[in-house]
Amino acid sequence: DVAMTQSPLSLPVTLGQSASISCRSSQSLVHSTDGNTYLNWYHQRPGQSPRRLIYKVSNRDSGVPDRFSGSGSGTDFTLEISRVEADDVGTFYCMQGARWPPTFGQGTEVEIK
Amino acid sequence: QVQLVESGGGLVQPGKSLRLSCTASGFSFRSYGLHWVRQSPGKGLNWVAVISYNENEKYYAGSVKGRFVISRDNSQSTLFLEMSSLTIEDTGVYYCAREEGDGYNSVRYWGRGTLVTVSS
Prior knowledge:
Helices cover about 0% and strands about 50% of the residues of chain A. With about 110 residues, chain A is an all-beta fold. In chain A, a hairpin with a 3-residue loop joins strand 5 (about 50-55) and strand 6.
């Protein structure tokens, strides 16, 4: 299975500041069939279901603020959150869909300082 | 809007069976692949199984292969997960999730989950 390693696992942030979460995969996430990279980011607020923020590395879902941006390639990916708001607390997960089985990172818990 | 509502969770003894259901609305059910993802208490997300829109393809995580069966009834817009030989490690919230069609295994919409507790 593809191992997804996130860092940091805990991220205290100050309101209004930026935050960055890293996600590294043990294998390339470039799909052999179409050449696309299947790496998504999800946000799970406490007590809620996950919500997809970003798909295929850098594409924001509709309704997701442009404060969230994804980047990366191959095995190295980053989620950037600019101007952190109180609503951003919770756990962020990366997930790969390029290789079977789909796998998630361990999660990065974001809290407000 | 897309709605996914899981049901069927509860307390079950080790070695027993349980059937989960996920009732969908707000979209053309028969057009999308569907997944089950679970979350152990206080832990992260773990993918469990997927079924293609036409039920022709089904895949399972290694930890549940041979014990869990995913199926769907497109006429009733319902997804199922038949779980057998349950162990304590199967405890968790089980989410039904729908693909978006914008990539492989690209789950976008999630239900609220149903809690399965395996305990004697």
